[in-house]
């Protein structure tokens, strides 16, 4: 692994997207409030993000058709599927959203089974790191060894550092951990981006 990628999530404006990109983010994930199909804000943000930075749209729908309907007009090149939709519907969803990439969020209960199911369907998987300081990272390490895995759900930069050391995932999806009083904090952004770069260069334990 040459580096650990950084997604900055909860992006609600062009200004936030630019701040994340300036700090070295590999991707920006749009805020859930921008996910409605009639909302043009997400398309404006997506249009303002230069390549190669990816734009991710999280979609909290339970069927492939609903996922496709929400994602079609977004302008986002990557769709993050928040619920475990029927695996048999993935090929049809890909046909509708031709050219899009997919990240599948894994359920907290029995994530390894879900990873086995979706690992060959989505380009990457996402697992919420949770808030339990005593979490057993063994399952996350096994998933990360088999598929590109993002870890998410961190409360602060220290929690990100601990998860990176324990799992060495393909990427980190950070939202609340990069904010102070609800606003993206440039110092936290810079510190986490630098930590991930250093961790990616370091040999695995």
TrEMBL record:
<keyword id="KW-0413">Isomerase</keyword>
<dbReference type="GO" id="GO:0004640">
    <property type="term" value="F:phosphoribosylanthranilate isomerase activity"/>
</dbReference>
<protein>
    <submittedName>
        <fullName>Phosphoribosylanthranilate isomerase</fullName>
        <ecNumber>5.3.1.24</ecNumber>
    </submittedName>
</protein>
<dbReference type="InterPro" id="IPR013785">
    <property type="entry name" value="Aldolase_TIM"/>
</dbReference>
<dbReference type="InterPro" id="IPR011060">
    <property type="entry name" value="RibuloseP-bd_barrel"/>
</dbReference>
């Amino acid at each position: 692994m040459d580096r650990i990628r950084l997604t900055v999530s909860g992006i609600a404006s062009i200004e936030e997207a630019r701040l994340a990109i300036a700090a070295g983010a590999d991707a920006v994930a749009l805020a859930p409030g921008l996910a409605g199909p009639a909302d043009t804000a997400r398309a404006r943000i997506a249009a303002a993000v230069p390549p190669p930075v990816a734009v991710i749209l999280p979609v909290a729908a339970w069927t492939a058709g609903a996922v496709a309907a929400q994602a079609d007009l977004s302008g986002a090149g990557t769709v993050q599927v928040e619920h475990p939709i029927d695996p048999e519907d993935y090929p049809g969803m890909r046909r509708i959203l031709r050219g899009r990439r997919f990240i599948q969020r894994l359920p907290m209960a029995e994530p390894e089974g879900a990873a086995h199911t979706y690992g060959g369907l989505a380009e990457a998987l996402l697992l919420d790191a949770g808030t339990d300081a005593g979490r057993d990272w063994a399952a996350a390490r096994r998933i990360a060894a088999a598929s590109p895995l993002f870890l998410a759900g961190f409360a602060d930069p220290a929690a990100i550092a601990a998860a990176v050391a324990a799992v060495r995932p393909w990427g980190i999806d950070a939202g609340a951990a990069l904010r102070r009083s609800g606003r993206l904090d440039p110092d936290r952004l810079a510190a986490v981006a630098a930590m991930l770069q250093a961790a990616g260069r370091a040999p695995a334990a």
